[in-house]
Design a protein that fits this description.
alpha/beta, Glutaredoxin, five-stranded mixed sheet, binds flavin mononucleotide, binds iron/sulfur cluster, Nuop51_4Fe4S-bd, NADH-UbQ_OxRdtase_51kDa_CS, NADH dehydrogenase (ubiquinone) activity
Length: 518
């Protein structure tokens, strides 16, 4: 009987040597005359164990990892094709604590199925949501998405159903669905992981959005630094077209919907929705003033839904299991699940999908296992480069949009970066200003000029030139940027800067005073 061996083919695992492992496994199979089939799956998101190889045995799937090419011959010697014991044995992957503690709704198939096999997708519950949507009126689809409580996972947390309703209610011959796959936030990889590991769930979500709003054309805007995601999405779109999911008629319905994959040249600001639309139109990626909202005048001036990958990929489960099912997960106004991406100086880095509500401390200490260096955690930046730094004193903050906002922070795209006690928060604050200066689109003064002045001021502080004056100046500058910027790049840069100053004042003390205290 043929054996199935899963070896991840996603970019994270490839960067850790998965291709060499696959070649070595192929070689051993041929040399030993074993009847086996290799499936290049996505990652389950336990990156410290990648490349994690799995074998289907009579007792279910058995995992081994992290596997290097040099381990492969010994794995075969140990009889791993039938689940034999080896020093890299991990047992049933579903029972690994990092997996067992998750609630995987959006990522239910990621790492389990063959990403570009539609049969596998359907065998694991795919297309049920789209089939349900085909049988519904657009307004009812919008209602179900609204009632699920799903909010945009790109950063702003805007209710997805309300955005869709605006597009549905706006008359227009042509409407568009744009998927924001720019994923520029530091420490984030959820969009990439799902596009590489389960691309059909995004295609299904986009098709449902099309049916819900009468949009017939969709674009996925993927950063050019994601060549593997682009390739997988291209392939999956072709498969979906051949299967009648995309094209002139969505699954035999009276409405058509098709998708084009576009790659962006890699500017952080091109993740901002209006800048992204300009870039898609072939213009410079400069932010547009709002109003008009993209939902009313978006791509090429037409009504446009623009949603993050995870927002769209979460729609099929809502349309499959119902609004209430999804809404039952979570806390407060943060409903459903959130794929938290744990990165930085952390022992167990990876993607952890869970209902909203876990505290930051649980995520960092229990799920992430503390720092990789073994030193104490000093700070955690939540929400990418525009997110605040949280000290241990705020580790009781539950993962929830409003709870984070109350503490002058944000969830953003749910990426967290862990820092140990060797981190210099003045350096991090300067980095935030420098990042803003480099990535600013230049349209408004507080961001374009303010960020450069911010770098200079923090440099003077570092050099101990009138430190108190510099601190007052930075605070004032942050206020101007926060309230005077056109978009969140300039408007949110004060979050990392001010949180570093407020929570870690010792790193901003004039050097002379600090030395005297030591
Ligand atoms: C500077 C900047 C960068 C952004 N980058 C991204 C990004 O990479 N991906 C994303 O989905 N949203 C990003 N956003 C948020 C988008 O503007 C927009 O809110 C989002 O695409 C809406 O989708 P959602 O409602 O599904 O979250 C960014 C915003 C700003 C201000
Ligand atoms: S805040 Fe910065 S990125 Fe945003 S519009 Fe102004 S200059 Fe451009």
């Amino acid at each position: 009987m043929s054996v199935t061996i899963y070896i991840p083919g996603d970019s994270g695992s490839l960067s850790l040597g998965a291709e060499k492992v696959a070649k070595a496994v192929e070689k051993e199979i041929a040399a030993r005359g074993i009847d086996a089939r290799i499936v290049r799956n996505g990652s389950r998101g336990l990156y410290w164990l990648e490349p994690m190889v799995e074998v289907v045995t009579d007792a279910g799937r058995v995992a081994y990892g992290p596997v290097a090419a040099k381990d492969v011959a010994s794995l075969f010697d140990a009889g791993f094709v039938t689940g034999g014991e080896h020093r890299l044995s991990l047992g049933d992957p579903e029972k690994l604590p990092f997996v067992a503690k998750q609630t995987r709704l959006t990522f239910a198939r990621c790492g389990i199925t063959d990403p570009i096999s539609l049969e596998d997708y359907e065998a694991h519950g795919g297309l049920v949501g789209l089939r349900n949507a085909v049988a519904m009126a657009p307004a009812d689809i919008v209602k179900q998405v609204t009632e699920s409580g799903l909010r945009g996972r790109g950063g702003a947390g805007f209710p997805t159903g309300i955005k869709w309703k605006t597009v549905l209610d706006t008359p227009g011959e042509q409407k568009y669905i744009v998927c924001n796959a720019d994923e520029g936030d530091s420490a984030t990889f959820a969009d990439r992981m799902i596009m590489e590991g389960d691309p059909f769930v995004l295609i299904e979500g986009m098709a449902i959005a099309g049916l819900a709003t009468h949009a017939t054309k969709g674009y996925v805007y993927i950063r050019s630094e994601y060549p593997h995601a682009i390739a997988v999405m291209e392939k999956a779109v072709q498969v979906a077209r051949r299967a009648g999911i995309l094209g002139k008629s969505v699954l035999g319905s009276s409405q058509g919907f098709d998708i084009e994959i576009r790659s962006g040249a890699g500017a952080y600001v091109c993740g901002e929705e209006t800048s992204l639309l300009n870039s898609l139109e072939g213009k410079r990626g400069v932010v547009r003033a709002k109003p008009p909202l993209p939902a009313i005048q978006g791509l090429f001036g037409k009504p446009t839904v623009i949603n993050n990958v995870i927002s769209l990929a979460s729609v099929p489960i809502v349309m499959d299991k119902g609004a209430q099912y999804y809404k039952d997960f979570g806390m407060g106004r943060s409903r459903g699940t959130i794929p938290i991406q744990i990165a930085g100086n952390v022992k167990h880095g990876g993607l952890f999908e869970v209902a909203f509500g876990l505290t930051l401390g649980e995520i960092v200490d229990e799920i992430g296992g503390g720092t990789a260096t073994g030193r104490p955690v000093k700070a955690v930046q939540v929400g990418g480069p525009l997110g605040a730094y949280f000290p241990r004193a705020l580790f009781d903050t539950p993962f929830d949009y409003e709870e984070f906002a109350k503490r002058d922070g944000l969830i953003g795209h749910a990426g967290i970066t862990v820092f140990d006690d060797s981190a210099d928060m003045l350096k991090q604050a300067r980095f935030a200003m420098e990042f803003c200066a480099i990535e600013s689109c230049g349209k408004c003064t507080p961001c374009r000029i303010g960020s450069t002045r911010g770098v200079e001021t923090l440099d003077k502080l570092k050099q101990n030139i009138e430190p108190e004056k510099q601190l007052a100046l930075v605070t004032d500058l942050c206020n101007t940027m926060k309230f005077g910027s056109l978009c969140a790049l300039g408007g949110f840069t004060p979050y990392p800067v001010m949180s570093a100053i407020n929570h870690f004042p010792e790193d901003f003390r004039p050097a002379a005073v600090a030395q005297a205290a030591e």
